[in-house]
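Troubleshooting log. The previous run stalled partway through. Resubmitting the same two chains, unchanged.
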Amino acid sequence: GAVVSQHPSRVICKSGTSVKIECRSLDFQATTMFWYRQFPKQSLMLMATSNEGSKATYEQGVEKDKFLINHASLTLSTLTVTSAHPEDSSFYICSARPPGGDTGELFFGEGSRLTVL
Amino acid sequence: GQQLNQSPQSMFIQEGEDVSMNCTSSSIFNTWLWYKQDPGEGPVLLIALYKAGELTSNGRLTAQFGITRKDSFLNISASIPSDVGIYFCAGQPTRYGGATNKLIFGTGTLLAVQP
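Second attempt completed without errors. Output:
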């Protein structure tokens, strides 16, 4: 399957600082990437859809000024958690879908665990 | 956000037993996917289903796309300890990819296998 990689896998930061998480598609170009958030023992909740060369589309209830998304190239999307607070601590997972064909399969990165102290 | 209803919520079984879990939705999906997630990792795709009534196998795993397009099930035969993890179903409104074709996840089934 296609490979999607995230960095960093774990990050600890102080409250009030900003944290950037990178998502890369390693063997395909992705015009669209998706960012999910997962709290402990819960399912994945879609936060936003990242679109290469244009603004991201955010799900209802997700603050776009809080979670800045930049999809500057066909292989890289970044999520920046601005002015992080302890309640932003979570597992953030990105995903991307290889272009073309009739597959709806979505491939996921390894996830990034954010802990805000 | 929207979620699919998945059951059971958790299962504790003995090695060698068969496992069955299912996922239901109030709305129609045209693609059903099953993922497995290990602790601290991203989900890994197990099986993808594209047609109502379709039955697909991947080794010891078998999944079916319900005729009504509102449900799907996953069976695991002869479970082994490495089957431990959280299994998620996911539904997608259409078969084809695209920016607006969002994947909706089920609530997850935690599987524990005792050797």
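Takeaways: Chain A is about 0% helix and 50% strand. The interface with chain B takes residues 1, 4, 6, 31-32, 34, 42-46, 49, 51, 57, 59-61, 91, 93, 95, 97-99, 102-111, 113 of chain A (CB under 8 Å).
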